[in-house]
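Sharing a chain and its predicted structure for anyone who wants a worked example. Both blocks are below, sequence first, tokens second.
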Amino acid sequence: MRVINLVIPRWFYPNNLGDSIHSYFAPKVIKHKFPDSKLVVVTYGELASLMSLNPYVDSVINTTGVRGLTPDYYRSWAFNRESKDHYCLYAQWHPMLWEYWNDNFNYFSNHPTANILTVNSLLQLGMESMLFSGIDLHTTLDSDIEREERTLGIAPMTKLSGKHTPHPGCDGIGLRFNGDKGESWKKFIETVKSLDKNIHIIEYSPKYLGLGDEHVGELPWPKLIEEVRRPTVSVMTDGGLHHAFNLANSPLVFLASQQVSKETHLMLSNSRFYPDLHASCMDRCYNNLRNLKGWKGLDTTCNKSCQTVDPYRLAEKVFKDYFDE
């Protein structure tokens, strides 16, 4: 039997959540191309535990890497496809990514089961043709946890891990919703509760901010994905955690935020975006979004402060679409 190795060197970025969870889809496409092979995933820590639950993975090696092999070695491996039996996914943009994305912007930005991270991973695997094959690229983690009625999830911070983030923050602490230190979240929740006081709010954050009726913080990843499966719908900006919601196929309302969290690049079919709440931001940035060479390319149109989203209107829209009977 042919043995295929997929190496994801998470030992170099052990606190990474989003890119790591996103890589759960990769074994599916590898097995689609090599259905009779044995697939071995080589990675580290929480991702190793998660990959052991993947039905397309035959074996997992949990390791801290090989002494002497540097990030440059794995980066070069991921960016220069040579071996047909050994694949590597590295948490960095492929050199061809932005040009390839922009050339296919309309198709990729509306792809139901792929976003920019999917495209990046498939370029590293040399399997980008699958984006045009009609294959369902999305992979979900099976669970017996059922979605709860009249339950609203919120993820108010950029990182559930609470670790330092390279993403620009609106207010210095990561509450990227209007950059007002959580006031917009409070107004949003108050409005939802005024429409139905029985809606249960789950707050996903590294430490409890007092916004939700219930708090979910750091958990082992399989348990975290079970927890994000619970809400009827959740509201959040990007920050890594939305990949866990994708893996759980949990409904999301996505807020654009600053230079990142652009719905054109990050949404899948489980996500919803209200463009009328981001009208001025879209007017200012949309054409530029089609020609980015990296997130920093938004500097020319984005002033590095969050586009204001009316929390009252957001609450009314979410209530009408998900809770109004």
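Comments welcome. Residues 183-195 form the longest helix (13 residues).
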